[in-house]
Amino acid sequence: MSTNTIIPPSPTQEYCCNINLNIYDSQECVRLSTQAALGRHLRITSGIENTAIKIHLCEDDYPGWLSIQDIKFLQPALTKYQPVILDRQEIHKLIPQIIAFTQAAKLENNYYLWGGTVAPNYDCSGLIQAAFKSVGVWLPRDAYQQEAFVQPVEMETIQPGDLIFFGTPQKATHVGLYLGDGTYIHSSGTEIGRNGIGIDILSEQGDTVSQSYYKQLRGAGRVVKSYQPQMK
Predict the structure, then answer these.
(1) What is the set of active-site residues?
(2) Strands across the sheet with 62-67, in order?
(3) Following DSSP, what letter does each residue of 146-164 receive, concatenated?
(4) pLDDT digit string, tens, across residues 172-223
(5) Cα separation of 143 and 193, whole Å?
């Protein structure tokens, strides 16, 4: 059976999400990989395999699997996704709104959700991506991708709105948004975290959570452009 028997063909080869959708990391659709918010564009890149189809999210080039039960929530996109191009000065002016988004998200009843990019529950990079997306700036999906995308800055020169990266010497596994005054906001998990959105300090003098992340500090970066999709 082909996907064309379930959804009509799209003149642009892209589809829009009618609701927020879960995207999984395998065709078994067990482990959440990311989420596609209402209005996002995607492409279908495979036929039905067991109970899922492989898809590609247009805005950040992120691949994943969509349950065939959710195909009914797709509609053909009459126009292709067109990214907004913003320069670093324009992005800098939007930083207060980006910070405000994260602070408002913190006030919502939330918990850490691996793969979460849609309110109220986020993972670390999902919160960062959603915050920038709220003002029209797209970032790559995962923390290590975001680290590679931003302009590196020295820790001594970080400014509010910069991204702070944590992890191992080999790879960034966590990201937060710098607020100023040595603090950052992030969504952290349950093992060594706050099980949701919280504010921590970049110092060995903080509580157990702050200390744990500070020991994993890799560096910082500044968003100076919006992500431009590679898959046309």
Answers:
(1) 124, 174, 186
(2) 32-36, 21-24, 62-67, 52-57, 41-44, 15-17, 74-76
(3) HHHHSEEE-GGG--TT-EE
(4) 999 999 999 999 999 999 988 999 999 999 999 999 999 999 999 999 999 9
(5) 16
Whether the CB-CB separation of 110 and 197 falls below 8 Å is answered with yes
Residue 5 corresponds to which tokens in the numbers above?
């028997």
Block residue for tokens 């950052």: 184
Tokens of residue 190, six digits: 């349950």
Scan for tokens 């937060």, then name that residue: 176
pLDDT digits (tens, 9 = 90+) for 126-171: 999 999 999 999 999 999 999 999 999 999 999 999 999 999 999 9
The string of DSSP letters for 13-57 reads S-EEESS-EEEESSTT--SEEEEE-TT-EEEE-S--BTTEEEEEE
pTM: 0.95
